[in-house]
Write a structure and sequence with these properties.
single chain; 226 residues; alpha+beta; 5-stranded antiparallel sheet; 4-stranded antiparallel sheet; 5 helices; 9 strands; 27% helix
């Protein structure tokens, strides 16, 4: 299992750089189609289902703390296996930065909620051309990240950090849309019912996900707001 996931993330790092260097479609319609096409599904010899999406950029503007160019804008990707159905592996990277490691991230939701991500996964990306680290998080946290109407992230690289918007309500990073497609795929292959947090509209409606009922779970279990 681990060698398979490790090899997959080596390919993810290369694919992410194609997006970062402008090789993806330029129009919104083409970008949406391209992101949807990057959702990968597989089944292991033992029957475990796998879903992954390559890292995409959050929404960066010059002048944000520690962000020198838009190519240093953090990227976020994710993968999931039915062997650990309630857990996802969130990969966070910072392109165009050298000799540092991504040590963690603080995700800010709304006006006051902060969730710290520090639990490193036992399987880490290989072959990436920029610093990237994978963290184990509850699957519901990825869902919250995909559908929260207001969010931003502070990514730590040792003693330094960079801040970037994820979703301002008016502008969303490609990472938001990619994670929404990722969650849609996970829900389809697992039979999981999206939580009420995913039914708030926006990207959820655009992707045509959901039904009349949601799961009863609330919040982000397993994570501890600071």
């Amino acid at each position: 299992m681990k060698p398979r996931l490790t090899a997959a993330f080596g390919a993810v790092g290369v694919a992410a750089m194609l997006v970062l260097t402008g090789c993806a479609g330029s129009s919104e319609k083409k970008v949406e189609k391209g992101i949807a096409a990057q959702i990968k599904q597989d089944v292991t010899p033992s029957g475990d289902k796998l879903v992954s999406v390559q890292p995409y950029r959050v929404s960066c503007n010059l002048g944000q703390s520690q962000v020198q160019t838009t190519y240093q804008c953090p990227v976020i990707g994710a993968d999931w296996t039915s062997a650990r159905a309630g857990i996802a592996r969130l990969t966070i990277g910072v392109p165009n930065v050298k000799d540092v490691n991504v040590t963690g991230a603080d995700f800010h939701f709304g006006s006051s909620e902060v969730i710290r991500v520090r639990s490193k996964s036992s399987v880490q990306p290989e072959g990436s051309s920029y610093p990237a680290t994978s963290f184990d998080v509850p699957l519901t946290f990825v869902e919250k990240l995909a559908y929260s109407p207001r969010s931003w992230v502070r990514v730590y690289t040792g003693e330094r950090f960079s801040d970037a918007n994820i979703n301002t309500g008016e502008e969303t990073g490609k990472a938001v849309e990619s994670l929404a497609y990722f969650m849609k795929s996970v829900d389809e292959v697992s039979g999981r019912t999206p939580s009420p947090a995913a039914k708030g509209g926006g990207l959820f409606d655009r992707l045509g996900i959901g039904g009349d009922e949601g799961s009863s779970g609330g919040g982000v279990e397993g994570m501890h707001p600071r």
